Amino acid sequence: MNNPIITVRNVSKYYKNGEVQTVALREANLDIYPGQSVALVGPSGCGKSTLLHLIAGIDSPSQGEIYVDGHPFHALNEEKLARLRGQIIGIVFQFFNLLPTLSVIENVMLPALLQGVVDHAASKAAKELLAEVGLSHRLSHYPHQLSGGEMQRVALARALIMKPKIILADEPTGNLDSETTERILSLIKKLVLEYQLTLLMVTHSLEVAKSADRILNMKDGRLFS
Ligand code: ADP
Ligand code: MG
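# magnesium ion complex -> structure
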């Protein structure tokens, strides 16, 4: 079998707020293999976003090791993490996180420009991806002129602009109505197959989870397979 593309070894995460310490993640262990679609479910506050942020290298573990595509994320500085994250990982959030002052195509181009891709190449790739998610007619719109489903399509195109191997999605349909949820989920499925992505997706919906290759449960900072 292939090597895992994501490995989490004995990872714990503590947050300190003055005197109060919160344990967000307790001794988590996880291997995800290339091409797997994994759903992460569990009640609010159990540590799902924390785990995603650690795997994304947005936050660092208090203890333990995290390897992403062979890189020791627990041991790298922020600059290296930002560069690797930009190349390997696409991230999708519940509230889309588009930049309001940038147009649709500019939002999608931004990660590529930040990674040093030249303007015309970034623009070409962004147009192709926006066609792929059905938004060719919205290139010059601004986020506030779009529906929730359209904003999440833009966010998906943005997540794919650097041809990542991994998509981390944190409740990507949590802010959408049920019909739009269906459409976004089938779009995610299509993109995962087409670009041979590894997917780790936080979701509250058991329905959604059932369509994944694997379901991970979390409770009180503990991870269960
Ligand atoms: P979930 O995504 O499952 O709802 P989170 O990973 O966001 O849960 O949070 C797990 C726990 O860690 C919660 O108790 C939350 O309040 C706490 N937490 C998360 N981020 C921080 C932070 N930056 N500072 C302090 N506590 C945090
Ligand atoms: Mg969360």
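# post-check
The chain has seven helices and ten strands.
The mean pLDDT is 95.
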